[in-house]
Amino acid sequence: MKKKKIILTFFLIFLGLTIISSFSLFSGDEINHGFSSKNRLMLIGITGFLFVYYIKLDKPFQYAHATINNDKKESDQKDNEFFTKPKVTFEDVAGLDEVKEELIEVIDFINQSEKYKKMGAKIPKGILFHGPPGTGKTLLASAVAGETKSSFFTASGSEFVEKYVGVGAKRVRTLFEKAKKEAPSVIFIDEIDAIGAKRHMDSNNEKDQTLNQLLVELDGFNTDQTVVVIGATNRMDLLDEALLRPGRFDRHMYIGNPNVRAREEILKVHTKNKPLASDVKIDDLAKKTHGMSGAHLSNIANEAAIIAVRENQTIISIKHFEQAIERVIAGLQVKNPTVLLKEKQIVSYHEAGHALIGKILNTDVVQKVSIIPRGQALGYVLHMPQDDRYIMTKEELCNKIMVMLGGRAAEELIFGHLSTGAKDDLKKVTEIAMQMVCEYGMSDLGYMSNNPTMMQVLGKQINKEMNKIIDECYDHTKQQLKVYQEELEKIASTLMERETLNGDELTALLGDFKRKDETLEAV
Ligand SMILES: Nc1ncnc2c1ncn2[C@@H]1O[C@H](COP(=O)(O)OP(=O)(O)OP(=O)(O)O)[C@@H](O)[C@H]1O
Ligand SMILES: [Zn+2]
């Protein structure tokens, strides 16, 4: 290949020179020198063709070059390991005002570290974000780096345990070394519970070594280095005490699910660059998305846009958002479901039971009842609380249980037997009853506050109290359904026919059904 290339190089030089000389000779008499313009054109054509061939021949050299580039890329990648470019600032983080306010002090420390160092002030180097998933912990940490134009290093606790098996402790050291070298920097360790969970007294396993290294690193850097470490977890209760001690992760910030105002802000951020129809009212959407996290809301905004594109629309309307909410809450709609007629009947009564009890007790607003299978559910009722609630009374918790038992009670009332369809309902009911007894002191056992020793000793009595609550709620639910059986049949048969009813349709279908309230009092 090399020989061929050398010969071709010489030949091309020779041809090139001939063409050049043909031009200089041409200044005189072209015919005398034997270079007609036709010949010259032919010569240029042949040279061009050979040149292309020459370039093709050169390809292996290019590959070699590419390999060198790849090697360089790999070494760059190693250098950039853990490093992420922060693309957001506080403007991109909606709501969370109290947390942002607290973080302003940290930002000031990074931006004006000299001011603090002069005063000998020790600024918290370890901050712990804790709270449910998808509430913006990662986003917030990235925004701290963005606001301070710091280098941003991210790692996940589970990565140290799963990806870097055997070298977790070494990777932690590397992470801190890099961050110190690039200071000012922000280190973000997500899922910190994966390495920071309580150590076992007798074991010296790899996870413990990684955690020990993390503790060493946290203790190791002083105020001269402007490095702030932010950890995040959904399970703060699992963390080793040592990690939370002063000087380590000693500032704890709870990042919870957004309230209605924050949901509105988050939806605004995520619909900012999307063409919205005039029927989309962000404040209404915020009310309809109770209990959802920022990640859910960003998902809904994106899903609504995708649905609109799928329908060949140029703007996103409220109907697309409603479909997106359903998709996010209830899962994907099952295409061509094969549900037997008998099953469809059972599901219709089951969902009608939930919806009707919700209406009777006037708990949350029923937004939709459907027997179209979604995800693993054969039917579902979407209900949303009217307002954000922070305190609930015993009566309200019982009402919640009754709505959940409405499905099972309707099945028993109409068909005289039970089915497996109430599995999830029963799980949720048991959870609430357990909280009522063990956390809220709402049973005859009185105040308990989730004390593990007490729970062990009183195990049987706790069960008895929980059963008492659930049984009473179930009896009451069945009574209600008996009184309103006519309405139950009406909802179920409409569902059989139309498969879905929205909140307004349900209200219209029931009319002034509460007229029976007096009868119920007498039951
Ligand atoms: N307050 C918020 N403002 C704007 N967007 C938000 C907010 N909270 C969450 N989001 C959106 O949700 C996405 C996921 O959030 P993020 O990854 O920060 O949550 P997280 O709390 O770190 O979750 P996890 O605990 O599961 O790691 C973000 O990329 C963003 O699009
Ligand atoms: Zn149910």
UniProtKB/TrEMBL annotation:
It is a multi-pass membrane protein. It comes from the Bacteria. GO terms for cellular component: plasma membrane. The chain crosses the membrane at residues 38-55. One of its GO terms (biological process) is proteolysis. Binds 1 zinc ion per subunit. Belongs to the AAA ATPase family. In the central section; belongs to the AAA ATPase family. PANTHER family: ATP-DEPENDENT ZINC METALLOPROTEASE YME1L1, METALLOPROTEASE M41 FTSH. This is ATP-dependent zinc metalloprotease FtsH. It comes from Natronincola ferrireducens.
